[in-house]
Amino acid sequence: MHKIKLLDDCIHELARLPGVGRKTAARLAMHILKMKPEDVHRLADRLTAFKDNTVFCSVCGGLSEGETCPICMDTYREPHVLCVVEEAKDIFIIEQTSYYKGRYHVLGGKISPLDGIGPDNLRIAELLDRVQAEGVTEVILATNPDVDGETTAIYLTRRLKSIADSAVKVTKLASGIPLGTHIEYADEMTVLRALESRREI
Ligand SMILES: [Zn+2]
Question: How many CB atoms within 10 Å of residue 196?
Fold first, then answer.
């Protein structure tokens, strides 16, 4: 079979991205070939710059261009309310509502026995430390409404309530987000309503 090695390499790399099959990768590669050279170089430069300069905030675990992210450094944000999310990208969804003024804590996943992910694989110890060290009065659990997300929320509630001398209020997003729907796919109004009508557990 006649093969163009550089094209094949390009398709191979693109097809490694999630949701991109070989056919789509081939289409993207051919599109890239038709793009202006400066546009392709800019795309490559931005991907490299993004990868090389984006880190996880040492406090909340969200995305950051420096040691501490802008949300953690923002002195106008309510310091005693923490919203716990599974992944760094979930922060963007909640930020889009412009309703929430507290800070965040990224777990880095959810408890999932089938995938071999237990509490020790998540940033739970860091969360408990922050609740105590930062005098947190409310923790809003914004894990996803699927089985693993619910299991994680129940586990976190138990751990948070067991902190000695702490009267931290634990709330959970209202069930406006349809069961099984990842926060990522919920629209802005749904997330806003789920936040506004969060309930204590
Ligand atoms: Zn941060």
Answer: 13
Q: Helix (H, G, I), strand (E, B), or coil: what is residue 4?
A: coil
Distance between CA 187 and CA 190 in Å, rounded?
A: 5
Distance 66 CA to ligand 1 centre (A): 10
Q: What is the pTM of this model?
A: 0.80
- For the chain, domains (ranges, CATH) are 5-53 (1.10.8.420), 56-200 (3.40.1360.10)
How far, in Å, from the CA of 187 to the mean position of ligand 1? 24
Length of the chain: 201
- Blockwise average pLDDT, block size 10, the chain, 201 residues: 88 95 96 97 96 96 96 94 94 89 96 92 95 92 90 93 82 68 71 80 82
Q: If residue 84 lies in a helix (H) or strand (E), which one and from where to where?
A: strand 81-85
Residue 13 C-alpha to ligand 1 middle, in angstroms? 31
